[in-house]
């Protein structure tokens, strides 16, 4: 099932910074790369768009920014129809992956660029530049040139440049993907802080990094082949992914064949056979067929019983990878491989050992067979 509508009626966002996409469709040379997408981004919300390369994430952003005209559909900011507005009139800031700073301009002039283009008075321009540089911790670098900065610093300047115009909506297209892991981690924290300081700013954050999305976003949309195949509040989407693609894209997931035997309670507790073993799963949705996939995340499996409701799967340890903080176990459960991630394991089991794997009914989810 493809979900296509995630929207209130167009124009119903309550202030000027919410975005509404109404059946937005984009084609390049007659090839549709974004299938009709309806989506509401609430004012002040951080929405992360994730998905594999080529799935259409940048296209959504470029359409909202006004760099690519939609083949059909409309784009609203608050109740303003901005579909045909030129980019500079939309009140948006955009940051892309490769910084795109002007190499011949000092940091302060890069940040001032958009303000000067708007012919803001000089004193106000200087004040805004200082403010923007301060918000990304780059005041001391104002007179340097981009080549005198590290990648992380350049990206901070790019963010400052986008913030200087005080956009109502900030579009970020893989802003951290050119940076190395440690700096990326720090920058994610900084973007989170920035949003705490500017809570009214709506942020659309494109990334292929699920950790960035999980850390920053209020809501996540997952793109595949030009469609949004999953959408929801970050925590709920992680806990209850609607399909296999979402489950596997947003973290690691064990996916096992399962047959539904009985709906046991109004609360959705369902008895399922998994490789001949009976387990209980809490399923909020309606079950249309008996054949399902059982999804349970590696870190939700333990080697001990946690409650009276705990489910048990009998397993044989195939291999073990100790990584200091974490230990990864690969187990065989009735011919299927199950990954377990544990934080503490003492003593370490050996390959070939028989293990009991335990998980709670509400730490598992039933998915439809098929990928999306
Ligand atoms: N300027 C363009 N001309 C033609 N095809 C494009 C252009 N930009 C992107 N595409 C195609 O549109 C699809 C979606 O691209 P994009 O939105 O950049 O994906 P993502 O950001 O998820 O990697 C891809 O198949 C890509 O090749
Ligand atoms: Mg892209």
UniProtKB/TrEMBL annotation:
One of its GO terms (biological process) is quaternary ammonium group transport. One of its GO terms (cellular component) is ATP-binding cassette (ABC) transporter complex. Keywords: ATP-binding, Nucleotide-binding, Transport. One of its GO terms (molecular function) is transmembrane transporter activity. InterPro entries: AAA+_ATPase, ABC_SmlMolc_Importer, ABC_transporter-like_ATP-bd, ABC_transporter-like_CS, AminoethylPonate_ABC_PhnT, Mo/tungstate-bd_C_term_dom, P-loop_NTPase, Transp-assoc_OB_typ2. Residues 19-250 form the ABC transporter domain. Belongs to the ABC transporter superfamily. Drug exporter-2 (TC 3.A.1.117) family. PANTHER family: SPERMIDINE/PUTRESCINE IMPORT ATP-BINDING PROTEIN POTA, SPERMIDINE_PUTRESCINE IMPORT ATP-BINDING PROTEIN POTA. This is 2-aminoethylphosphonate ABC transport system ATP-binding subunit PhnT.
